[in-house]
C-alpha cells in the first residue's frame, strides 16, 4: 500500500493532470514560478491506457522528464489500481513509477482539484452572478453540473485551504413551488428518490424537460441537453425556456443549501461543462432569488457572492497552485501517494 508522508512538496518538474471520462488534460510545471508547459487535450478514447497517452502525447513531446505527477480523477481512490468512471483507463501509480520514470505520484478527487482552483482563481477567471463581484478570504463551495453533478467544499481556517471532496450532488432535491409539485412526480427517480444529479446535469436537463412535457400532456421533442439549452437561450421553444428557468432555480436552491452547510462566505463557484454554456440564463433573476431564499438566513445569503468559473482549465490551475505552494493547502496524502 502507498506510504503517507504529509506536508512535503511534490518534486519538480511536476506533471498535473485532470482525467475526465472523455478528456484528459495535462500541464508540466518545471518549477514553482514559471508558466506551465501546456499540451493539447487528449481524448481518452484514443489510447487504451493512460500510460500510453502520457508516454506518446506528453513525455515524447516534452523534452522534460517530470519527477512527480498529481492527477485528479472522478471517483474514489481506494487502492493501488484506480479505475476511472465513464472510461476504461485504470491509473496504476506503481507502474507509472516503474515504467514512466516518475519518483512520486499523488492522486486526488476531481472536485478537490476544482476546489483548489476556487481558492486560487483570479478575477479574470470567473464571472460574478448577481451584484457582488468581490469575495473575502472565506470558505467556499464549488458545484459543477456536467456529465454528473460534482460538489466540493473548501474550508479556510488557520491560514490554510482544506478541500473537502464529497458526494453533495446526491443530496435530495425536493419540490417547493406549486409548479414544482406538478412536475416532480414526473421526474425520473433513482431508487425512489430525486437527487440533485437527477436534474442538475446533462441528462438531468432532459429528465426535467420530459417531466414538464408529461405534466402538461404534451409530446417531448428534444433528447439532447444541448438542444434544450440552445432553444432556451434563443427563446425559440417555451418548454425549453421553462426547463432552463427551473434548472437555474434548482441549481440556485442547491447552491444555497451547500453555502449554508459550509458557511461559504468566500462564495459559491459554478464549474462543469454546462455552467459556462448557460451564463445568460444564470444572470436572470431566478438563480440568485433561489440562492438567497433561505429563511431565516436570507440576509446572510445576500452577502455571499456567486461566480461562474470561466478559466478553461480550472482543475489544472488548482492542482498547479497546490504544487507550487503546498503549505497553503491541507491536502491529504495518506493512502493516495506513491513514491519510488
Ligand atoms: N450546450 C450544452 N447545454 C447543455 N448541456 C450540454 C451542452 N453541451 C454539453 N452538454 C452536456 O454536458 C455534459 C458534459 O459536461 P462536461 O463537459 O462538464 O463533462 P465532464 O463530466 O467534465 O466530462 P469529462 O468527464 O470528460 O471531464 C454532457 O451531459 C453533455 O450532454
Automatic annotation (TrEMBL):
It comes from Allorhizobium taibaishanense. Keywords: ATP-binding, Cytoplasm, Glycolysis, Kinase, Nucleotide-binding, Transferase. It is found in: Cytoplasm. Pfam families: Glucokinase. PANTHER family: GLUCOKINASE (PTHR47690). It catalyses: D-glucose + ATP = D-glucose 6-phosphate + ADP + H(+). GO terms for molecular function: ATP binding; D-glucose binding; glucokinase activity. Belongs to the bacterial glucokinase family. GO terms for biological process: glycolytic process. It is an enzyme of class 2 (transferase). ATP binds at residues 17-22. The lineage of its organism: Bacteria, Pseudomonadati, Pseudomonadota, Alphaproteobacteria, Hyphomicrobiales. It comes from the Bacteria. This is Glucokinase. NCBIfam families: glk, PRK00292.1-4. GO terms for cellular component: cytosol. Its EC number is 2.7.1.2. The keyword Nucleotide-binding applies. The gene is glk.
Amino acid at each position: 500500500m502507498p506510504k503517507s508522508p504529509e506536508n512535503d512538496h511534490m518534486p519538480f518538474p511536476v506533471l498535473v493532470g485532470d482525467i475526465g471520462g472523455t478528456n484528459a488534460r495535462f500541464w508540466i510545471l518545471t518549477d514553482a514560478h514559471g508558466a506551465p508547459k501546456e499540451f493539447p487535450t487528449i481524448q481518452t478514447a484514443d489510447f487504451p491506457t493512460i500510460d500510453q497517452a502520457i508516454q506518446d502525447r506528453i513525455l515524447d513531446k516534452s523534452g522534460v522528464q517530470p519527477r512527480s505527477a498529481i492527477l485528479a480523477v472522478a471517483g474514489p481512490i481506494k487502492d493501488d489500481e484506480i479505475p476511472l468512471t465513464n472510461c476504461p483507463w485504470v491509473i496504476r501509480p506503481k507502474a507509472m513509477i516503474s515504467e514512466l520514470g516518475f519518483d512520486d505520484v499523488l492522486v486526488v478527487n476531481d472536485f478537490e482539484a476544482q476546489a483548489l482552483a476556487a481558492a486560487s482563481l483570479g478575477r479574470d477567471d470567473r464571472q460574478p452572478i448577481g451584484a457582488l463581484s468581490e469575495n473575502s478570504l472565506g470558505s467556499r463551495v464549488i458545484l459543477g453540473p456536467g456529465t454528473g453533478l460534482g460538489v466540493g467544499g473548501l474550508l479556510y481556517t488557520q491560514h490554510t485551504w482544506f478541500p473537502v471532496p464529497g458526494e453533495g450532488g446526491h443530496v435530495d432535491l425536493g419540490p417547493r413551488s406549486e409548479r414544482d409539485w406538478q412536475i416532480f412526480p414526473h421526474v425520473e427517480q433513482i431508487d425512489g428518490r430525486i437527487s440533485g444529479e437527477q436534474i442538475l446535469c446533462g441528462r438531468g436537463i432532459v429528465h426535467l424537460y420530459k417531466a414538464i412535457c408529461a405534466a402538461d400532456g404534451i409530446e417531448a421533442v428534444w433528447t439532447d441537453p444541448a438542444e434544450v439549452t440552445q432553444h432556451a437561450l434563443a427563446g425559440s421553444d417555451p418548454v425549453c425556456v421553462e426547463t432552463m428557468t427551473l434548472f437555474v432555480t434548482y441549481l440556485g436552491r442547491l447552491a444555497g443549501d451547500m453555502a449554508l452547510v459550509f458557511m461559504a462566505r468566500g462564495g459559491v463557484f459554478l464549474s462543469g461543462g454546462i455552467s459556462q454554456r448557460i451564463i445568460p440564463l444564470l444572470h436572470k433573476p431566478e438563480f440568485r432569488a433561489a440562492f438567497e431564499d433561505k429563511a431565516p438566513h436570507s440576509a446572510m445569503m445576500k452577502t455571499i457572492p456567486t461566480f461562474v468559473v470561466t478559466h478553461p482549465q480550472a482543475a489544472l490551475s488548482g492542482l498547479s497552485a497546490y504544487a507550487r505552494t503546498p503549505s497553503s493547502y491541507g491536502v491529504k496524502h495518506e493512502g493516495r501517494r506513491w513514491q519510488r
